[in-house]
Design brief:
The protein has an eight-stranded mixed β-barrel with strand order 1-2-3-4-7-8-6-5. With 264 residues, it is α+β, with helices and mostly antiparallel strands. The protein is 32% helix and 24% strand. The protein is globular, with a radius of gyration of 24 Å. The protein has one domain (75-263): Beta Barrel (Sortase, Chain: A).
């Protein structure tokens, strides 16, 4: 065998090896894409099914329903389903419509469903340091920024002024009441920043924290927030910025008793 023939054989072997590597990479990438797609789909279906299951069906009335309508949830069933359940969040005209849980740490529900089984998208949860009765000045709620827009995947849209103007509040459902929170601040911050402060040493510390949430905001809201108010901070990841988070602050401005509404 001549040197020229040997060279051609080596070149063919190298070509076959490179082709095998390419096919392997392509196959693995396709598998990853399918797996991620299935994970997203599983999460969406799980929460759509849960909402359907936990919504109390009421008899249809002949008259046209008057907006705004509110969710009628089976709180007893939700609490029986998981004793970690502490509320339900809904932001109108978005996909945010999920149960909220609270565990003994901030890791447990990162990739667990409300039934505590594996779920890639996890469950929306409150910081374990918070009081589960929502009485803190700053109650922090975490959710994944899913690439399909589910969970808290729509929060980054608040960077758009038009989106900010169109979405000015969200609702927390618990104990057959609706707690209306008015949005007043949105910005990007460090994952370990003062935004995540829960314990405050005196009224001045509370006032300083509130001022910071206003000063950091991308937009002005004109909303008043005092040291005796109750703020919810929604937090999610920033794409390709592991140390940063998007945060949305909203203050409690109204409470609606659904039991009284249904009797009126």
């Amino acid at each position: 065998m001549t040197q020229k023939e040997k060279k051609k054989i080596r070149e063919k072997i190298i070509l076959v090896i490179l082709l095998a590597i390419f096919v392997g990479i392509a196959g693995f990438s396709a598998y990853q894409i399918i797996n991620i797609t299935n994970n997203y789909r599983e999460g969406r279906l799980a929460y759509e099914s849960l909402l359907e299951e936990m919504t109390i069906k009421t008899e249809e009335k002949e008259e046209v329903a008057v907006e705004p309508y509110y969710l009628q949830l089976n709180y007893e069933a939700l609490n029986n389903r998981n004793s970690d359940f502490i509320g339900w969040i809904r932001m109108r005209d978005t996909v945010i419509n999920y149960p909220i849980v609270q565990a003994r740490d901030n890791d447990f529900y990162l990739h667990r469903s409300i039934d505590k089984g594996y779920l890639y998208s996890g469950t929306i949860f409150m910081d374990f340091r918070n009081s589960g009765d929502w009485s803190d000045l700053n109650s922090i709620i975490y959710g994944h920024r899913m690439n399909d827009g589910s969970m808290f995947g729509t929060l980054p849209k608040f960077a758009n002024k038009a989106y900010w103007d169109e979405h000015r509040s969200f609702e927390i459902y618990r104990d057959n009441k609706v707690y209306i929170y008015s949005i007043y601040s949105f910005y990007k911050t460090k994952a370990s920043g003062d935004t995540y402060q829960i314990y405050f040493n005196g009224d001045k510390a509370k006032s300083d924290w509130i001022s910071a949430t206003f000063n950091n905001s991308m937009y002005s809201s004109g909303q008043y927030v005092g040291i005796n108010d109750h703020v919810i901070t929604l937090s999610t990841c920033v794409r390709n910025e592991d140390d940063n988070r998007w945060v949305l602050h909203a203050v409690l401005t109204n409470v609606i008793d659904l039991a009284q509404e249904s009797n009126s």
